[in-house]
Amino acid sequence: MMTEWAGCVLVLLGVSWPALVDCRPHSGPTSENPHNHQIPQDPLVVKTRSGYIRGFSRTAMGRDVHVFLGVPFAKPPLGPLRFRRPVAMDPWYGVHDATILPNSCYQERYEYFPGFEGEEMWNPNTNISEDCLYLNIWVPQPMKMRHHNNDLKEETKQKLPVLIWIYGGGYMSGTATLDVYDGLMLAASTGVIIASMQYRVGAFGFLFLEPLLSRGSDDAPGNMGLWDQTLAIRWIKENIHSFSGDPDLITLFGESAGGGSVSLHLISPVTRGLVRRGIMQSGTINAPWSYMTAERALEIGKQLVSDCSCNASQLLDSPSRVMACMRGVDSKTISTMQWNSYSGILGFPSAPTIDGHFLPKDPMELLMEGDFPETEILIGSNLDEGTYFLLYDFIDYFSKDNLVKLQRDKYLELVNTIFKNMTKLEREAIIFQYTNWDNIDDDILNVKLISDIVGDYFFICPTNHFAENFAKHGLNVYYYYFMQRPTTSLWGEWMGVIHGDDIGYVFGHPLNMSVAYNARERDLSFRMMGAFANFAHTGKPGNSDVNWPAYTKKEPHYFIFHAEDSGIGRGPRAPTCAFWNDFFPRLKQHQSCDCSEAPDSVKLTEHLDMINLTSAVNFPLPANASPAQTALPLLLLLAALVAM
Question: Span 9-145+154-341: which CATH code?
C-alpha cells in the first residue's frame, strides 16, 4: 500500500535517498476549526473551494512531495444518485483528512490465476464500494540547491504543469489506488504535479436506458463514468492553483480504457477546451472495444434489468418503478449479472456510448470532422498488445507460463470465434492476411499470428488510425512504440511486451532499487518520465538531445522506447494496419451479408496468379508489402462481384 511504507531507503544508481518521510498511518477525518490561525501556516493543509484538506509529505530522489489522497469531488453516488450523473460535493467544514487511499469503485476481481502476482497487481487494493468518487494529488516541492557558498536555497516557485491519470480496465474494472499508479516518483523526478481520480465502472458507470425512460428523467443516461472523470478534472482545474499548479497546463494521460477516455475528452463537445493536451497509451476511443452504439447499450441495459429481476417489460409503462427496483438491488448482484452480456474477447458490456451528448456520434465521424480545439497528442502502443487478452479469453488453449503450439485447425477455430459476428468473406480475408503461406502448418508461428491479429485489430491499428486522422487536421501528433519486456515480468516469455508493461516505467518503478530492474531499465524509465513531462510543459516529448519527429499518415514516424536502444521507426505495423484501416472498410462496403461459418481452410491461393488484376482497385499498398498482401485487393474484386 502506498501509505504504509515507513523508514524506507531508496538506493538509486549507487546513491542512497530517504525514500519516504512521514508515512505513518493517519487517523480519520478531523473537525478542526478551519479559521484557526495555525492551519493556513501548515504547508500540508491546503484551502480549496470545497474546504481545507490535510495531506502528508513523502520524499523521493531528494525532493519532498506533498501527497493528498481521497479528496472527495462528488457526493457518494448512492441511493437516489445510483445510475445518475455525479453531483458536485458540498463544501465541508473543518479539515478533511486526505492521508488515506480511497475506496475502489465497485467491480469484480480477476481470479483466473489465484495467488499469481502478475494478475493480483491489477485487482483493487482498497475496499470496493459505490462510495468511491475521490481524487489524489502529488505536489512536488521546490528542490533545495546548494550554491557555491555552501548555502541551501530553494528553487524559484512557479506554476507547475499537471498530469492527470485515468486508469484502464476495459471500463469494467480498475482503480487509481494501485501501487503501480503511485505518483510519487513521477512527481519527484519531473517536478510536475500528478493527479488521479476514481470513476465508476461497469453498469454503475455506463448503464444506458435513457430512451426508454420518462422525458426529463435523470436515470441511467449512460456514460456516468465519463461524467465522473469530467467532474474530477473540473475540480482539479478550479483548485490546482492552490497547489502551485497551472490550470492552463493540464494534460490527461491514461492507458487502455484510460487512453480511450483521454481521447474522448479531447474530441467531446462536453469537455471542449477543458484540458490542454492528451497522452494515450494503448487505447483510443475508436477501438472496437472502446465505444458502443446506443442500440447495443440499450440491449445490454434491458438484459441487466431482467437479470436483476426488475421486469424490463415495464420500462415503457412504469420506468420509475423499474429504476426504483434497480436502485434496491445489491451491488454484488449488479456487478456479477452484468457479465452475462460479455460477448467474447474484449466484448465488454460497458463502454462509452453514442448517447447524443458526451459522445454525440461515431468517434471516427468526430475525428474526421475535426471540430475540436487545437491541441497536441502523444500516443503509443506496445509490441505485443494481444497476448494478454488471448490468454484470458482462450485459457484452455494457452498457458501463462509456457508456449503452447497452435495447430492450423485450432488457429482457424480461434479466428472464427474471435470474429464470429463478421461475415464469411471478412473472416477469410483476415485469415488470408495472417497466414504464413510459406508454411501454413508452422504451429509456433500460428501463436504469433493469432496474437498479432488481436493486438492489431483491437489496439495498434485503431491507435494508428486515430493518430493519422488527428494529424490530418494540422495538429501535432507524436507516436511512441514501447518494445521493452520488463526483466521483472512474471508472464511467460512467449507473451512478449504485453499490454500494460509500459505503465511501471512511466510511473518510475524501476527507480525503486528493491525491485530487480537493471540500470538500463532505470534509464529508460527516466527517459519516459522526461518525455511525458516535456510534453506536459511544451507539447513536444523531445528536447534538444532527442530527435522526435511528428507523426503523419505520409510520414508515420514513431519513437522507440527500449532499454538497449532508441531511435525512429516507421509504422508501426504499416502493412497489417493498411489492411485493417484502408482495405477492410472497403471490403465491408462491397459485399452483401453472409454470416455462415467460414470453411476450415481458405482456398484463395489459386488467385495468386491474378496479382496483375490488383491495379483495377485503387488501394494504397505499403511499399514493403509482401506478395501475399498484394493479392488482398483481389478480395475486394470478389466482394464486388458477390454484391452485384
Answer: 3.40.50.1820
Summarised one tens digit per residue, pLDDT across range 609-633 is 333 333 333 444 445 555 445 555 5
DSSP helix, strand, coil percent of the chain (3-state; round to 5): 35, 20, 45
The ranges assigned to domains in the chain are 9-145+154-341, 407-442+572-644
Report the C-alpha gap between 279 and 256 in whole angstroms: 11
- The answer, yes or no, to whether residue 133 has pLDDT greater than 90, is yes
96 carries an active-site annotation: no
Place of cell 448517447: 355
Q: Catalytic residue, from 119, 255, 376, 385: name it.
A: 385
Q: For residue range 444-477, what is the model confidence (pLDDT) as tens digits?
A: 999 999 999 999 999 999 999 999 999 999 999 9
Q: What is the model's pLDDT at position 21? A: 31
User: Catalytic one among 256, 290, 350, 525?
Assistant: 256
Catalytic, out of 66, 265, 465, 499: 499
- CA-to-CA separations, 311 to 149, 332, 390, 643, in angstroms, rounded: 78, 19, 36, 42
**What's the gap between Cα 551 and its chain centre?**
21
Catalytic annotation present for 385:
yes
Q: How far apart are CA 185 and CA 114, in angstroms?
A: 30
Reply yes or no on whether the pLDDT at 39 is more than 90: no
- 32 as an active site residue: the answer is no
Q: Is 15 exposed, middle or buried (0-12, 13-18, 19+ CB in 10 A)?
A: exposed
Q: Does the pLDDT at position 32 exceed 80? A: no
Beta-strand (E) ranges in 497-608?
557-561, 566-570
